[in-house]
Design a protein that fits this description.
Elements: H1 2-10, H2 14-29, H3 33-47, H4 56-60, H5 67-87, H6 92-101, H7 108-116, H8 122-128, H9 133-140, H10 142-146, E1 149-150, H11 151-166, E2 173-176, H12 178-181, E3 186-187, E4 190-195, H13 201-218, E5 222-231, E6 234-241, E7 250-256, H14 262-270, H15 273-285, E8 289-291, E9 294-297, E10 312-315, H16 319-326
Parallel strand pairs: 4-7
Antiparallel strand pairs: 1-3, 2-4, 5-6, 6-7, 8-9, 9-10
The structure holds 2'-deoxycytidine-5'-triphosphate (DCP), magnesium ion (MG) and manganese (II) ion.
Length: 338
């Protein structure tokens, strides 16, 4: 009714509440009482606020709103903002915000901070803002990283890295994942998935980080390392490279994976991200859990659904077997676009 419309538009958090309400309705339909209650409490708490809640931190400070819901609220606020940006003519500042978001390593918070500090161009940032090393590299190579990589060039990257690697260790296997594996005609970066049968992840890590990567730098292929993260599920190395005779820097990811986890890692690093989310949701509806290490069962959850145990590994190494165990027909990578 008109009255509803008016009162809704008076609440600064109306948009957020609307989305949360839709989610609550969904949880009611699937009889997820725990989430339903959590969402209802959060909605009631949000209705009482007289100012717009835009960050997870603000949301978390409100009674009845937990950490996860707080993150969700921030996501909703920003997604609405992004959706508006895509659908409507851009406000001058939104256009700047959008530009800053495209810089490698820059997220929502950093982009909006720069906008509010009055920066309007990439040049403003380079000359006036306090930048981290990666932000600076991201701006200096902004055009390079924005340029899509033709499929044929990705083939050449594969050949180049495989050639270099075969001289170091002939047992290492390299697969290019991401949009390339899905058959895309061009990609944003090159995602190398690297494994070695009968080899521990520690040894593989040593070979790649201490021999392959230095060698690729020495040959002039690698230009810069941007980030390295190591967890139990493997190692990720992010950097930039250019093929001999070319000058455009390309974003390169090396993802090191133990052989036993290759199936699950292939699913994760092939994506796309939406497909990953939906297949993980499907696993959880079947009482299982899919992550980049494998498919798990008997996952024990405690208070607030917090996972208490990892569960039992059902399958990790065979991509097709994971689909089978989930009861989904095999989907070739080209059909994993949601
Ligand atoms: N991925 C994910 N969720 C994320 C980021 C990545 O599930 N938030 C997975 C799915 C992606 C894969 O990792 O397909 C590789 O990530 P990229 O960012 O390289 O994305 P794509 O390779 O799919 O696309 P692009 O051509 O832009 O690189
Ligand atoms: Mg990619
Ligand atoms: Mn990538």
């Amino acid at each position: 009714s008109k009255h509803d419309g008016t009162s809704r538009s008076e609440n600064p958090n109306a948009k957020t509440i609307e989305v949360l309400q839709k989610m609550a309705d969904y949880y009611e339909r699937i009889q997820d009482h725990w989430r339903l209650t959590a969402y209802r409490k959060a909605i009631a708490a949000l209705r009482k606020r007289t100012t717009k809640i835009t960050t997870a931190k603000e949301a978390f400070a409100i009674p009845f709103i937990g950490k996860r819901l707080a993150d969700k609220i921030e996501e909703i606020v920003w997604t609405n903002r992004l959706r508006r940006l895509e659908n409507t003519k851009l406000e001058p500042n939104d256009e700047v915000f959008h530009l800053f978001l495209k810089i490698y390593s820059v997220g929502l918070a950093q982009a909006s901070k720069w906008v509010s500090q009055g920066y309007r161009t990439l040049d403003d940032l380079l000359t006036k803002a306090q930048l981290t090393r990666n932000q600076k590299l991201g701006i200096e190579h902004f055009d390079d990283f924005q340029t899509r990589i033709p499929r044929q060039e990705t083939d050449s990257h594969g050949q180049y890295v495989r050639d270099t690697c075969s001289n170091i260790d002939a047992g290492i296997q390299i697969t290019i994942g991401g949009s390339y594996r899905r058959g895309a005609t061009d990609s944003g970066d090159v995602d190398f998935i690297i494994t070695k049968p009968d080899c521990s992840i520690e040894i593989l890590r040593t070979i790649i980080l201490e021999r392959l990567i230095p060698q690729l730098f020495q040959r002039g292929y690698l230009k810069v390392g941007l980030a390295t993260t190591s967890k139990q599920d493997g190692t990720k190395w992010h950097g930039a490279a250019a093929l001999p005779g070319t000058s455009v820097w390309r974003r390169i990811d090396f993802l090191l994976v133990p052989r036993e986890e290759m199936g699950a890692a292939l699913i994760y690093f092939t994506g796309n991200d939406i497909f990953n989310r939906s297949i993980r949701l499907l696993a959880s509806k079947k009482g299982m859990r899919l992550n980049q290490r494998g498919l798990w069962k008997d996952v024990i959850r405690g208070k607030n659904r917090k996972r208490m145990t990892q569960g039992t590994l059902v399958e990790g190494k065979d991509e097709k077997r994971i689909f089978e165990l989930l009861g989904v027909p095999w989907r070739p990578p080209q059909h994993r676009i949601c």
